[in-house]
Amino acid sequence: MSRLYLLAFTTLLAAPLPALAQATPPPAPQTITFAAQLNRGFQNVQRNVLEAAEKMPEASYSFKPTPEIRPFGELVAHTALTQFFNCAALKGVDAPHKDDKEDAPRTKAELIALMKESSDFCTPVFSAVKDEDLTALVKVQNNQIAKGVLIAGANTHGNEMYGTICVYLRLKGIVPPTTERQNAAKKSQ
Predict the structure, then answer these.
(1) Rounded mean pLDDT, 162-173
(2) For the chain, give me the number of helices (H) and strands (E)?
(3) What pLDDT shows up at residue 166?
């Protein structure tokens, strides 16, 4: 009888092994460099701000939570124009739209196009910067600034603007894109 119990016990222990062997393996380890992570952060900012700009109805582009702060559309313009400035500094050229004003009247379509244009201008500039370039200095007005500082600053500023944009969206009853993606991911689990 003990042989029967031993055989049953061994069978039970061995049964889950094929199931474990068929489980999805963990993702392969990655090497993430500092420059690559800065570029990934920039791409996230682009996605978030652009999706938020697309979600806000055109009629709400003039929305201001209080009279003393910028309207929604001006936040989008500010984000795009600041990106042009930072990327142009990295390239060593004059910023496209350097004479544009953030508060210039623009439609939703024009602001989305401006945001896309700034992203298209910056993406190759940021992605070309390698780890060994991050401490190289570039002239920005009367200053010498490390390339990595410009990229990190653009990301920080973009995330700050996205956070502010999210408040405007919430005040209009709109779920921000990042929250919408998180909620969708939770539902799919």
Answers:
(1) 98
(2) 7, 2
(3) 98
Neighbours of 123 (CB within 10 A): 15
Q: Which two tokens stand for residue 114?
A: 């401006």
Mean pLDDT of 11-40: 71
Query: Who contacts 153 (Cβ-Cβ below 8 Å, separation ≥6)?
Result: 86
> Would you tell me the crossing angle of helices 34-55 and 108-128 to the nearest 10 degrees?
170
Q: What is the DSSP string of 101-158?
A: -TTS---HHHHHHHHHHHHHHHHHHHHH--GGGTT-EEEETTEEEEHHHHHHHHHHHH
The reply to whether CATH 1.20.120.450 applies to domain 32-177 is yes
- Are the beta carbons of 85 and 96 closer than 8 angstroms? no
Beta-carbon contacts of residue 11 (< 8 Å; ≥ 6 apart)? none
Q: Which of 114, 112, 39 is nearest to 82 (CA)?
A: 114
pTM of the model: 0.82
Helix (H, G, I), strand (E, B) or coil at 93: coil
Reported confidence tier of residue 13, pLDDT bands at 50, 70, 90: very low
Q: What residue segments make up the domains of the chain, in order of their start?
A: 32-177
**Average pLDDT, stretch 138-148?**
94
Residue with tokens 């502010």: 164
Could you give the count of Cα atoms lying within 13 Å of 135 in the half-sphere of its Cβ? Answer: 1
- pLDDT tens for 85-103 read 999 999 999 999 999 999 9
